[in-house]
Amino acid sequence: MPPLDVPEGDPFGPHNLPYGVFSLGSDAGSDSGSGTDSGSGTGSGPADRRIGVRLGDHVLDAGAAATALGSPYAALLTRPTLNPLLAAGRTAWSDVRRALTAWVTVHRDTVAPFLYPLSSVTLHLPFEVADYVDFYSSEHHARNVGQIFRPDAEDSLTPNWKHLPIGYHGRSGTVVVSGTDVVRPSGQRKAPTDPAPVFGPSVRLDIEAEVGFVIGVPSPQGTSVPLTDFRDHVFGLCLLNDWSARDIQAWEYVPLGPFLGKSFATSVSAWITPLDALDEARVAPPERTHPLLPYLDDSADAMDEPGGYDLRISISVNGHTVSEPPFSSMYWTAAQQLAQMTVNGASLRTGDLYGSGTVSGPSPDQRGSLLELTWNGREPFELPDGKRSFLEDGDLVTLTAWAPGPNGVRVGLGEVSGRIVSGPIASGQVGSGPIVSG
Amino acid sequence: MPPLDVPEGDPFGPHNLPYGVFSLGSDAGSDSGSGTDSGSGTGSGPADRRIGVRLGDHVLDAGAAATALGSPYAALLTRPTLNPLLAAGRTAWSDVRRALTAWVTVHRDTVAPFLYPLSSVTLHLPFEVADYVDFYSSEHHARNVGQIFRPDAEDSLTPNWKHLPIGYHGRSGTVVVSGTDVVRPSGQRKAPTDPAPVFGPSVRLDIEAEVGFVIGVPSPQGTSVPLTDFRDHVFGLCLLNDWSARDIQAWEYVPLGPFLGKSFATSVSAWITPLDALDEARVAPPERTHPLLPYLDDSADAMDEPGGYDLRISISVNGHTVSEPPFSSMYWTAAQQLAQMTVNGASLRTGDLYGSGTVSGPSPDQRGSLLELTWNGREPFELPDGKRSFLEDGDLVTLTAWAPGPNGVRVGLGEVSGRIVSGPIASGQVGSGPIVSG
Question: In Å, what is the CA distance from B143 to each residue of A255, B334, B364, B409?
Answer without folding.
Answer: 13, 20, 13, 34
